[in-house]
Amino acid sequence: MDAFDVAVIGSGPGGYVAAIRCAQLGLKTALIEKYNTLGGTCLNVGCIPSKALLDSSHHYEDATKHFDTHGIEIPGEIIANLSKMVARKDSVVAQTTKGIEFLMDKNKITVLHGFGSFKDAHTIAVKDNDGKTTDISAKNTIIATGSKPSQLPFITQDKERIITSTEALSLPEIPKHLVVIGGGVIGLELGQVYKRLGAEVTVVEYADRIIPSMDAALSKELTKVMKKQKVKFLLSHGVKEVTRKGDVVIVKANDKKGAEVVLEADYCLVAVGRSPYTAGLNAAAAGVNLDERGRIVTNSHLQTATPHIYAIGDVVAGAMLAHKAEEEGTMVAEIIAGQKPHIDYNLIPGVVYTWPEVAAVGKTEEQLKESNTPYKVGQFPMRALGRSRASMDLDGFVKILAHKETDEVLGVHMIGARCADLIAEAVVAMEFRASAEDISRMSHAHPTFAEAVKEAALAATEDRALHI
């Protein structure tokens, strides 16, 4: 039986990064993955393929709606070829997953393809696709088995017309009418892909606003922008039944007054979040406990009840974000190696890759109110930037929340072009506990979208934004 210093179960961003960091620290490392390709949900059926389709559909929308304004004239009809878009997406996924294989070889990590499950606290059985089982022993184990799409118990997902995000990435046709159940990140991103390509899109959300975990100002602005893009929203609607008759999907929901609303579509995407994936892990055999939501219970060092077994990423409490999993994978590897790393979970940014993009880090205004923290707000509209006018990306704003007495930045919330990249400035500033005045006194290149961050900081500093 092969023996390893560390065995990592799951090769998503958390798992493969943990494996690389363990190897860098001189630990003999094995990576166990049940699928034939590495990268987990994120690289195969999540972050990477969805962004590929978002970019392709964005190009199509620009060609059909914006090129003429820029003086680019294309004779003849512009056609959205979904099969080519999906093929390009698949190519991007293949290139990315092969890149992970290269990194495993480079770092001399043993990759075992098969389903990993505990036999005891130090022994893991790996069953491959042919049914052959290989046992390995590990001084330490990192569980990085990720998550799967959540289901509503009264909906039968046939994965043809009533689908999850996985099937939505490879549809055989552009829907005529796509109903999206869930107004979170996944539903909005994929809904926007198909809206751009010509589908009618209706989002049904149980809460009274979309992206309900983010600052309410972002929810309000994104709703306004997506309505302008002709996406329909049914907020405060509880779905009670989804059925299929031939190629027609019937969705029934009740509004907040209890009145029934019936929708007919050719596709229904169920995007109500994700659930931790521990099926078949046999966690109990290793003394690993699960909570009432199926997540693995850990302490602040991400140790389970069995101290040499750790868990990271979507399978533990906290935001289900690839970059959060990566940080946790790195931290656990360094803890195993005897170092003393840490993660500030308040400074892990969240991003929605619609267009305009939405990004945030730190506390929301609602959280500051709830905790009775004295704060001030500085906000600056993207449309006041020269760069925004030049690119025709006028929607959105940057909002900075700073402590009313100390001026320390407590939260940054933004919606607009390239906000997924701009949020990094806010993370750096908050990591070093910058004040709004600190940011306002830093030179920002002109003309850039980043100037909105400086202007919002100026607005939070004695209300002295320059360009509004």
Tell me what the structure shows.
With 468 residues, this protein is of the alpha/beta class. It has three domains: 2-148 and 275-343, FAD/NAD(P)-binding domain (3-Layer(bba) Sandwich); 162-272, 3-Layer(bba) Sandwich (FAD/NAD(P)-binding domain); 347-460, Enolase-like, domain 1 (2-Layer Sandwich), CATH 3.30.390.30. It has helices at residues 13-24, 40-45, 47-66, 82-106, 165-168, 185-196, 216-228, 322-336, 365-370, 386-391, 419-431, 436-440, 451-460, and strands spanning 2-9, 29-33, 110-113, 115-120, 123-127, 133-143, 147-149, 162-163, 177-181, 200-204, 232-234, 238-245, 248-254, 260-265, 267-270, 274-276, 309-311, 350-352, 357-362, 375-381, 397-403, 409-416. The strands form five sheets. Strands 1, 2, 3, 4, 5, 6 and 17 form a seven-stranded mixed beta sheet that branches. It has a five-stranded parallel beta sheet with strand order 8-15-9-10-11. Strand 1, helix 1 and strand 2 form a beta-alpha-beta unit. Helix 1 runs parallel beside helix 8 (322-336), helix 3 (47-66) packs antiparallel against helix 4 (82-106) and helix 3 runs parallel beside helix 6. The protein is globular, with a radius of gyration of 24 Å. The termini are far apart. The mean pLDDT is 97.
Give the key terms.
3 domains; 31% helix; 468 residues; 5-stranded parallel sheet; FAD/NAD(P)-binding domain; 22 strands; globular; 7-stranded mixed sheet; 13 helices; Enolase-like, domain 1; alpha/beta
